[in-house]
Design a protein that fits this description.
Blueprint: E1 4-8, E2 12-15, H1 20-33, E3 36-39, H2 50-63, E4 71-77, H3 84-92, E5 96-101, H4 121-130, E6 133-136, H5 150-165, E7 170-173, H6 179-187, E8 192-196, H7 198-202, H8 206-209, H9 226-237, E9 243-245, H10 254-257, H11 272-282, H12 289-301, E10 309-318, E11 323-325, E12 328-330, E13 338-343
């Protein structure tokens, strides 16, 4: 039995760091484990310009612990009115690493998102030309589509036609949640990859609905049937370079989660590697963990691998019921549980 695991330092290819006091409370959890992270731009107002991304990056760096070695990778929030030349300028200047497509109304602070991909045709053509990655929240938002089917319908109505029309566009299908999504990514070209969160590997929709409404298991896209969770586990642990780590860690104050209309999002950053590693051990795939956590993401984005190493050891890791954040409390994923691995650096 392996008692420790040392891997190349990993990156998080999808994280929400928020802003202000919340940013200061949560950024250290991500920086402790990861060398880089793709930072989501859905602030209020969203990060839609080069100047806004530079300013947000400066605030993230200022909020880091003094000893942190962490690089935030900034993204541009796409709207119906995004200027293709602003995207090009930000990418060529090294400010924007990717653009983020939120279908309008799909999740937190997405009301300014895109109502129809036809509206950003010029942006997408520019991105395909310069080799810039499009990060996609893959759900339709039509009221007549069941929330558990929105990812599959998005593939059929939006993503598949888009890639047929622009086959050179690089796409990361973020926080994959469905068997249909896994099959789509596996059969797509080398220009399509996906991130998978720890929560979608651990829980199905029962965690959110059995025994009462459980808001701390609620995220978007929502966890789905058990067959989808099992498909995600097979994909993540398979060794395929098309799948890599993206936590989608999304902190909300406890009172915002435990409200009449609880916010969507799971805060998993404090114990992300321990959570992922539990799945890889259960699937007898520890040998594929470094690829998923540390190698597949940089390769897809065309970035160098990290030189540092991190160590995880087999030891009990007690996850607290809550973590203080300014004048509130955050409930971490696995709250009150004991994980079998511990981050040792």
């Amino acid at each position: 039995m392996t008692d420790s695991l040392t891997i190349r330092r990993p990156d998080d290819w999808h994280v929400h760091l928020r802003d202000g006091a919340m940013l200061e409370a949560v950024v250290g959890h991500t920086a402790r484990q990861f060398a880089r992270a793709i930072v989501m731009p859905n602030l209020s107002p969203p990060v839609t310009t080069v100047a806004a991304a530079e300013a947000y990056r400066d605030r993230i760096l200022a909020a880091l612990p003094a000893d942190a070695d962490f690089t935030p990778l900034m993204t541009c929030y796409l709207t119906n009115n995004t200027d293709p030349e602003e995207v090009r300028r930000g990418f060529e200047a090294g400010v924007f690493t990717a653009c983020k497509l939120y279908p309008a109304g799909a999740t937190t602070n997405s009301d300014s998102g895109v109502t129809d991909v036809a509206n950003i045709r010029g942006v997408l053509e520019t991105m395909a030309e310069i080799g810039m990655v499009l990060c996609v929240h893959g759900e339709v938002t039509h009221a007549d589509v069941d929330i558990f089917d929105r990812e599959a319908v998005f593939i059929e109505r939006v993503l598949a036609p888009l890639l047929e029309d622009l086959p050179q566009l690089k796409v990361v299908f973020e926080h994959l949640t469905s068997e249909e999504g896994v099959q789509f990514v596996e059969t797509a070209g080398a220009n399509v990859a996906a991130t998978i969160t720890p929560q979608h590997l651990h829980i199905n929709r029962n965690a959110m609905l059995v025994g009462g409404m459980r808001p701390h298991a609620y995220c978007l896209p929502v966890a789905k049937r058990e067959k989808h969770r099992l498909a995600l586990r097979r994909a993540a642990t398979s060794g395929s370079a098309k799948f890599f780590l993206g936590t989608d860690s999304a902190p909300h104050a406890r009172e915002a989660k435990e409200s009449a209309c609880g916010c969507a999002g799971i805060f998993n950053a404090p114990f992300a590697l321990e959570s992922y590693l539990a799945v890889f051990e259960e699937e007898d795939a520890l040998g594929n963990f470094e690829g998923f956590a540390s190698e597949h993401g940089p390769a897809f984005y065309g970035l160098p691998l990290n030189e540092g190493r991190v160590k995880l050891e087999r030891a009990e890791c007690d996850v607290p019921d809550g973590l203080d954040a300014d004048d509130t409390q955050l409930v971490p994923f696995h709250a009150g549980e004991t994980l079998r691995w511990r981050f040792a650096n």
